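Reopening: C-alpha cells for the adenosine-5'-triphosphate complex, inputs below.
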Amino acid sequence: MSAASSPAPPVVLSIGSLSKTFPAQKALDDVDLELRAGEVHCLLGQNGSGKSTLIKILAGYHSADPGATVTLNGAPMTLGSTATPERAVAFIHQDLGLVAELDVVDNLALGNRYAGRWWLSGRRERRAAARLLSEFEVDLDPGRPLAEATPGQQTMVAIVRAVAATDGAPALLVLDEPTASLPQHQVEQLFDLVRKLRDRGAAILYVTHRLREVFQIGDRVTVLRDGRRITTQPVDTVDDADELVRLIIGRKPTEFSPPLPSPDSEVLLSASGVAGDQVTDFSLDVRAGEIVGVSGLIGSGYDQALGLTFGARRRSGGEVRLGGRAVPANRPDEAINAGLAYAPADRKRLSTIPEWTVRENLTLPRLPAVGPARWLGQRFERREVRPWIERLDVVPADPDRQLALLSGGNQQKVVLARWLRVDARILLLDEPTSGVDAGAKASIYEALADIAAQGRAVVLSSSDAEELCAVCDRVLIMRHGAVRAVLEKGDLSVARIVSETIRDSADDPQEGWHS
Ligand SMILES: Nc1ncnc2c1ncn2[C@@H]1O[C@H](COP(=O)(O)OP(=O)(O)OP(=O)(O)O)[C@@H](O)[C@H]1O
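Re-run output (same inputs, fresh job):
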C-alpha cells in the first residue's frame, strides 16, 4: 500500500461483531475486520482458529450468529446464501470446487455462468479459455481433463475462473491458502497475478500458513487465535516470522534443532531408474538415519516419484530395493511388508474416513473389534492417540470428534500422525506439512528427526524450500522427469533450491548433478 501520508483508500469490506457458534465449538468470537481497496490483507492463525469459518460465512456456506454487520462497498452484504453470491466477490477455497472429470475449458466455462450447457467445450469457450489462461500466464492445454493437471495447475484454473466470473475485476478476492501445493517459482507467478489484481483496486484477503509470504505479498496482517482477532497491523511493523508465530500461537515458538548429519549407515532404500507417469529416471539411495527431500516444479515429476517408488502409481521401469531385496513393481503390499509406508499428498481424499472419529482415523487400518474387545480396543486407542493429538496440537483435542468436523489443517495433522506413528523402516511422505500451521510444522519436523534418530529413514517431497532446508540431510531436485541436482546439507539454501528448480535442464543436463 502507498505511504501513510496519502488518504486511506476506501473500505471495501467491513465486518463488525462477527461470531459463529457450532455445536460445542465457538469458531469465531466477536471479530471486527476492515479491508481496503488495493491491499493484500493476510489472515493468519493456527489450524482451527476460525479462518475458513470467516471465509465460509462471507461465501454464504455458513450463517453467522445474530448481531454481525458486514458491508461490501458500503452496502449490506448478502450473507447466508450460496445461491446469490455477491458478483463482485471471488473466492478460492481450499477445496477448489472444480470438476476433475471435465476438461479445463468446461471448468472455466462453468464458473462463468454460461447459461446453456450444450455448447460447453464449444469453440467459443475454447477460445475464451485459451485467452483467459494466457492473460494470466497459465501454461496449460485447455482441452486436457482437469484430473490430469497437477494440484498447482488446478489452483490456477480456480483463480482464473473466479476472477473471470467477476468480469475480471473483483472488488474483493478471497484466497484461502492458494499456495499450499505450489513450488516457489509458481508462487511468484501467482503473486504477480495477485499484485495485478491489487493494483486494479481489489481488496484481497489472503489466508496462508507460509509466513514468508506475508512479507512478500502482504500489506496488512490480521491474526486470529481461538476465534478472536488478536491484532491487525501493517506488515512493515512486524519484525519477522518469529514475531508472527508468537502472535499466532500466543507463546514463543519451540526451537527446532535440525538433525545431525547422518553417519555412513546401511542403505535402507535404493531406487534406480524408476519411471512412470511424468518420471523418466528417479534414482536415490537412502541410508538409515537420513531425511531426504525431493523437490521440483509442477510437471517435473517430483510429486510422483514417491508414489511410483511405493507402487501407488504404475511404475513402467526401474528397480526399487528395500534392505537389499528387490520389490516388484506396482505391489504396494510387498512394499509395506518390506518396511515402506507412504502418505500421499491428497491425504483427505485418499486416506480418511471423514465420518469416523479422530481416534479411528489415527489408528486406521485397525479393524473395529466387537464385544468387550471393542471396548478395550477403544480404551487402548484413546491412550495411544492422545500423545499425538497433543504433540501436533490438534484442535479441538478430542479423540472422539468426527474427523469431518475438524478444520482442514487439523484433519491433515490427524492423518499425518497416523503415518508418523507406524513402525515402518522408511517413510515416504508427499508434502507432509501442506496446510499445517507453524506450530505443528515444528512438531512434525521433530517427529521426523526422531524417526531418523531411531535408525529409520524419511523421504519427503515438498514444494516448500524453507522446509527442505530445515529438515533434510540432502535434497534431490527433479527437472523434466529426472533427478538433475543433489544438494547436500552444506549446500542447502532457499536460493539454491529455487535456482536449481527453475533452471532449464536443456542448458546442461549433466552439469546439473552435484555429488
Ligand atoms: N461444520 C462444523 N461443525 C463443527 N465444528 C466446526 C465445523 N466447521 C469448523 N468447525 C470448528 O470450528 C473451528 C474453526 O475451524 P476453521 O475451519 O475455521 O479453522 P481454520 O482456521 O480455517 O483452520 P485451518 O488452518 O486448519 O484451515 C475448528 O475448531 C473446527 O473444528
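The chain is about 30% helix and 25% strand. The chain has three domains: 10-88+171-178+200-253, 254-339+425-437+455-515, 349-423. Marking as resolved unless the reporter disagrees.
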